[in-house]
Amino acid sequence: MKLHDRLFQATGMPDKSWWHALWPDPDGIVGELRIESGMTVVDLGCGDGYFTAAIARRLGPGRVIGLDLDPAMLEQAKAACDGNSNCDWLLGDAMELSRLIDSPVDYVWMANTFHGVPDKTALSKEVAAVLLPAARFAIVNWYPITREETLVLGQPRGPRTELRMSTEDTRAVVEPAGFRLERLVELPPYHYGAIFEKT
User: Any idea where the Methyltransferase domain is (predicted)?
Assistant: First the structure.
């Protein structure tokens, strides 16, 4: 199977100019979603490392594992995190997470890709399998408003309207995998963060 066929739907890495315009303060987002110093965090589908670098800065003596299916993205993520000594890298499929992570972690972070996962509950079970008891799974998602309404630098951005998920849609597919919603965080202008605790 070709790499393109294994990528999650509508989750390609966007142009950096609009990505930075949409997320001018990645460190603030990471803090809002309760990542704490000393944790071990998996950045699932880390892409070019924009949030991975912010997580690394937040963790201090902790450790972030950036995982992506695309080798070119991992190389970009490594460059983005240059100078941080607490980053590790895994090339692999998120749907095989429990076979890729060798010891339980405190937190799994997934930003802007959950909407494209074909079997969201199966992925959530993979996440649950690598988390310590009462550890967290955070999903950053686009609100289900039309793509025409989500303008960045004057252009419609983000996934197709029909792929966007409400907070209830997200709960409905994650909680059956062994989670409970702990907290919802508003991430203006177009996103929310859903923090789930492993039960």
Answer: 41-133
